[in-house]
Design the sequence.
C-alpha cells in the first residue's frame, strides 16, 4: 500500500515554509508575466499542452518559472503529469512515487493512484524509495506552483514520474503507454529542467569564442542583427583564459549554446528531432539536467504526431530565458533557466 504523504522536504530552504509568504511570492512572480505580442503569447495559452520550467530555489528560478505556469489553461485541466530528472539516485529507467499525496506549504496535492496503478501494470516503471522521492528537488520545486495555480481545484490529481536513464527501447514503450493520457484534453504535462550549469564545480566549461547573437532570442534577450553570413561557431570544450575573446564574455557564449538547444526543440514533431537534440547534447555536453525528461517528451510527440500533417503538429514557444549570474571568467559559475510552452493546434 502507498505511504500517506511525501513531506515538503525543501520548504524552509529552497522556498518559504510559510503559506502566506509563499503565496505572496508566487502571486508576485505571476503578476509580472505580461503578453509578448511578437510571440503571440497571451496567458493563459488556450492550446498549451505542456511546459518546460526550471526547478532551482525560488529566489533564482521562481520568476522564470512563472512565465511557464501562467500559460497553463487551468480551467480545463484535471490531471497533471510531472516529469523530472533524478539528481541523487541512479535510476536505469523511469520510476513512480509510492506516496498517496505530496505536501506543500500552500496545500497538499493528491496523487492519481488509479493512473499510477495502470502505469505500474505495464512493467516499465519501478517505484521510488521514499527517501529518493523526498530527496529529489526536481519534482518538489514544481509542487507549490501547481497547487497555487490550481488553488480553486482541490480535486486536481498528480502523476509524478522520475526519469533516470531509460534506453531508446524504454522510451519507445513509454511513449506508447503515455499516448492515451496525452490525448486526454483534461491532462497536462510539465517537464522539469534547468538548462546550462556552467563552471568547474559542474565540470562544464564549454565556450564559443565567436558566439553570434541568437537567431531567435528568447525574452528578455534583446534582438541583435545577426552577421550577414552565418555558420555555427567553433566550440571549445574546456574554457581556458588564453582562448577567451574579450568580445564574447562567457555568459554570452552560454546564452548562445542554450538558445541552440531551445531552437532544436521548437519543432519537436519534425522527423529527426530526437536525433538532432541528442547530437546537440553530445557535441556541447550542455549540462541540461532535465535532458532525459525532455527527450522522453520528444519521443512521445514523435510517436503521436510524426506522421500527421504539419497543420496538426505541436510547436514550442520559449517565453523566458535567464541566467543566475553572468560569468566573466573561468572561476565563475551560473545556471540557466528556461520557460517554454508547447502548443498543440486545435
Sequence:
Amino acid at each position: 500500500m502507498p505511504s500517506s504523504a511525501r513531506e515538503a522536504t525543501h520548504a524552509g530552504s529552497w522556498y518559504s515554509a510559510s503559506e502566506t509568504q509563499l503565496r505572496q511570492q508566487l502571486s508576485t512572480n505571476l503578476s509580472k508575466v505580461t503578453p509578448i505580442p511578437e510571440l503571440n503569447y497571451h496567458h493563459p495559452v488556450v492550446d498549451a499542452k505542456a511546459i518546460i520550467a526550471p526547478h532551482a530555489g525560488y529566489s533564482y528560478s521562481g520568476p522564470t518559472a512563472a512565465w511557464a505556469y501562467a500559460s497553463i489553461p487551468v480551467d480545463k485541466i484535471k490531471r497533471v503529469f510531472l516529469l523530472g530528472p533524478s539528481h541523487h539516485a541512479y535510476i536505469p529507467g523511469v520510476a513512480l512515487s509510492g506516496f498517496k499525496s505530496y505536501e506543500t506549504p500552500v496545500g497538499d496535492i493528491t496523487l492519481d493512484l488509479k493512473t499510477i496503478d495502470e502505469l505500474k501494470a505495464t512493467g516499465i516503471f519501478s517505484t521510488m524509495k521514499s527517501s529518493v522521492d523526498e530527496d529529489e528537488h526536481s519534482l518538489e520545486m514544481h509542487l507549490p506552483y501547481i497547487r497555487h495555480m490550481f488553488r480553486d481545484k482541490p480535486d486536481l490529481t498528480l502523476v509524478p514520474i522520475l526519469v533516470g536513464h531509460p534506453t531508446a527501447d524504454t522510451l519507445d514503450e513509454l511513449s506508447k503507454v503515455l499516448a492515451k493520457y496525452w490525448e486526454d484534453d483534461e491532462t497536462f504535462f510539465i517537464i522539469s529542467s534547468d538548462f546550462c550549469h556552467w563552471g568547474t564545480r559542474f565540470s562544464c566549461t564549454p565556450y564559443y569564442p565567436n558566439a553570434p547573437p541568437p537567431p531567435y532570442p528568447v525574452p528578455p534577450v534583446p534582438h541583435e542583427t545577426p552577421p550577414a553570413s552565418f555558420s555555427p561557431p567553433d566550440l571549445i570544450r574546456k574554457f581556458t583564459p588564453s582562448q577567451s575573446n574579450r568580445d564574447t564574455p562567457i555568459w554570452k557564449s552560454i546564452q548562445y549554446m542554450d538558445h541552440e538547444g531551445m531552437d532544436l526543440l521548437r519543432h519537436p514533431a519534425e522527423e529527426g528531432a530526437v536525433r538532432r537534440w541528442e547530437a546537440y547534447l553530445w557535441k556541447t555536453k550542455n549540462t541540461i539536467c532535465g535532458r532525459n525528461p525532455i527527450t522522453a517528451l520528444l519521443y512521445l510527440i514523435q510517436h503521436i504526431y510524426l506522421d500527421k500533417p504539419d497543420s496538426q503538429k505541436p510547436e514550442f514557444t520559449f517565453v523566458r530565458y535567464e541566467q543566475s549570474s553572468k560569468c566573466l571568467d573561468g572561476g565563475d559559475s551560473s545556471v540557466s533557466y528556461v520557460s517554454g510552452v508547447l502548443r498543440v493546434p486545435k
